[in-house]
Fold these 2 entries.
Entry 1:
Amino acid sequence: MVMDKKNRKIFSDIIKKAKMVDGICPYCSQHTLLISIVNDFFRCLTCGGDIEQKVNGKINYIPVQLEEFDEVKKDG
Ligand SMILES: [Zn+2]
């Protein structure tokens, strides 16, 4: 796989913007690290499941399907 400059820049932008939180993943039920990919959407570093963070008095994580990020995966 060849990473051109543009892809590398996008990747570093993602890393710069990313934030990590720990929480319980609804997919694998592990207490794990979740990496923020955009806004309130997180990805489990254990199983790769996409999760939406809902703050409603307490933080809940719910499973989501992010089709646009599947496309990014295919390209990268
Ligand atoms: Zn998980």
Entry 2:
Amino acid sequence: MKKKLLKVVLLGKTNAGKSSLINQIVGETVSISNKKINTTNQIIKGLITLQNVQIILYDTPGLNFFKTEQGNQKKFKTNVWQCILNTDVILFLLDSKTINLEDLYKNLKKIVNLEKKVFLVFNKIDLVNKDNLLPLIKEISDNFSIDSFFNISAKYNLGLDNLLKYLMQFAKNQPWEYDQNDISNKDDIFITNECTRNAILTYLHKELPYNIEVKNKIYKKLNNGDFKIKQIIKISNERYKKIILGKKGDKIKQIREFSQKNISKIIKSKVHLYIEVTK
Ligand SMILES: Nc1nc2c(ncn2[C@@H]2O[C@H](COP(=O)(O)OP(=O)(O)OP(=O)(O)O)[C@@H](O)[C@H]2O)c(=O)[nH]1
Ligand SMILES: [Mg+2]
């Protein structure tokens, strides 16, 4: 069978469930998800190859990413825009519980004239009554030419088979860009660093989690099959150290344990995680 390729970009506000959807489709965690806002901070590709079709799913930072950080936002917008232009299909994801039509229309106006397929995906269908979405779908179709609407739950894997099947028909006769078994363009070190960033997002509040960077220092498979991983949390200000460590080191303990557990799940091995906090 001839090889086919399909490039799909996921767009939507922060917390719409873009990363959750990609992970559920790929079947592994390739992009961290969190109930805190602005979890994804760069474009990550999730990959799935079904028979002769390879699908590249581009996870993007939420459309309202850091409204206040002008420099960052500009760079991120350029990257996302280039990514959109490079793809065949746009999946615009909505959190069905918090739809703001004015905001949606503002975003749709920017993408509906690009001559790309645009699908509107109502996510978190587990939290709402589907029937309540019907008048909304009617109103949106009256105003924009949307190629198709879907109801899904990324978290509970509802409606995803249907969505995937539908997407596959838009694949083009093109060589694949990745190996058949690849699931992401990122390596294991990336996702293990991200697990610690996710733990920091979970256990620390306000702006602090957004001002740190996690780097890998040691990533080693031991003779018994366990992994020894050492990471550094890079902080921009010395005073953050106390906050990250917490009283008697209780915060960093929680962060380390949470991250270690998630890394173990992802790399399917026992992990010994060490974390250092430095400027
Ligand atoms: N109930 C429910 N929760 C969901 C569903 N999909 C995602 N979530 C939750 O919504 C939150 C945000 O999910 P993410 O996947 O991080 O959202 P995102 O769009 O990638 O967010 P950013 O990276 O910040 O742009 C997490 O707590 C998820 O568990 C769903 O179908 N149902
Ligand atoms: Mg995300």
